[in-house]
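debug: dumping io for the single-chain case to check the tokenizer round-trip. Nothing else runs in this session.
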Amino acid sequence: MHHLKNIGTVIYLDHPLWMILRRIGDTTQKRGVILQPGQRIADVYHERKHLYRKYADIEFQTKKLSPGKSSRILANLIRFMEEEIDSAPHASPTSPTETSTDLRRSADRGTQ
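debug: decoded output
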């Protein structure tokens, strides 16, 4: 995770377990998820969720959005972030976290 934070902005897609299971089922045969013998998707979800939240620069809640709408919003967010970095009159931020933290603060102000 540290490597990912060093090379870009980490976006955690916060999606409820019940919706994940509804979309992909509790099988991994065709989904590319590697599990230990006896391990289930729910086990992996609960094991990793806190790590994803810990290392995320941005948390994006998807539970009320379709996959298509989520992807369009994320694409627009990423485009906005890239434009902000490119149009900044000074040097680019020292880290992706600096930019995403600023954006998170802006988003928080907009929702209050």
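debug: round-trip ok. The chain has one domain: 2-111.
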